[in-house]
Amino acid sequence: MSEQRQILADTADRLFADAVTSRRIEGFDAKLWQQTIEMGLPLLLAPEADGGAGGDWDDAGAVLHALGHHGVPIPLAENMIAAQLAADAGLELPSGPVSLATRVEGALQQAGTRFDGKLLGVPWGRHADAILAVVPGHTVLLRRTDATSLRHAHNLADEPRDDLIFDNAPAVCGPASDGTQASHLLALARCAQISGALEAALHKSVEYAQTRKQFGRAIGQFQAVQQQLAQFGAEVAAAMCATRAACRAATRGDASFQIAAAKLRCNLAIGFATSTAHQVHAAIGFTREFDLRQSTQRLWSWRTEGGNDRAWADVLGARVCARGDQFWADLTARDDAVSLT
């Protein structure tokens, strides 16, 4: 990690850590959102010419790792992606929060100036000033206030995942080069957040094992517990490595293969990691007052967001079958390309 990127990661980590330790955050944190704006984080992936920070996915991955580690409830990942896609399409975002819709049922009307349809499961939809969506061939920007209906919904971690219905609503649109780009970038963002939340759950579990005593000694001194925590650590390391490789590939260009591999690897790590964390903590880990849930409930939710295990396994399997005996050459070439940058 470069010195500049390390400074960015450390600054974001301090910001998020201070926010969650100074006050109990439930729901959208407007004060913290304003602080991220002052740091330029929502526009991190937008070019400097468009008023952004001109960062890349290595930078975004470091920030989103910290976001996931501290379980901060703001739509930063979605706004980052929306800023990148809007810049690619030549669209200007409003100053307030912008979310991202990857599940779209509807179509543009009247030469692309109106939109009829539904945006489903929009992260933080009720708090967004606008939502960016991709329909065939177009990137579309819609204002939340133009929705005729907004149904509140949540994921398992109580993060808003709202449904919005638009009826002949005003739309601003630009060209979209790839209809899968939004969903792939959301998957990559979730990988970074997952790796941070996994790391946080591991740290909490190790700390608890060192202080919780049974039979006259800390439970972390029992070999069975140590073995589980060691395997937990290996799962976290694997997820973090896969995520970092995908971020580096996204910075270089097409990262569809690496993103698929990273999301599947992160998803697979969640099962063992969360079960081990709750086994170590026992009954107290399931209580709402205990902060372990801030990591594990988000992990269970993010496992299905941006593509679940089967979806990405199907993608990888299809890619491997399509390449036949060239798969190993492709795999090693990808690793060599990333390691040289």
Automatic annotation (TrEMBL):
Species per Swiss-Prot/TrEMBL record: Panacagrimonas perspica
PANTHER family from the UniProt entry: ACYL-COA DEHYDROGENASE, ACYL-COA DEHYDROGENASE FADE28
Keyword Flavoprotein: yes
SUPFAM superfamilies: Acyl-CoA dehydrogenase C-terminal domain-like, Acyl-CoA dehydrogenase NM domain-like
Keywords for the protein's UniProt record, in alphabetical order: FAD, Flavoprotein, Oxidoreductase
Residue ranges of every copy of the Acyl-CoA dehydrogenase/oxidase C-terminal domain listed in the record: 188-310
Record family assignment: Belongs to the acyl-CoA dehydrogenase family.
GO molecular function: acyl-CoA dehydrogenase activity; flavin adenine dinucleotide binding
Keyword Oxidoreductase among UniProt keywords: yes
Protein name: Acyl-CoA dehydrogenase
Cofactor entry: FAD
Domain Acyl-CoA dehydrogenase/oxidase N-terminal: 3-86
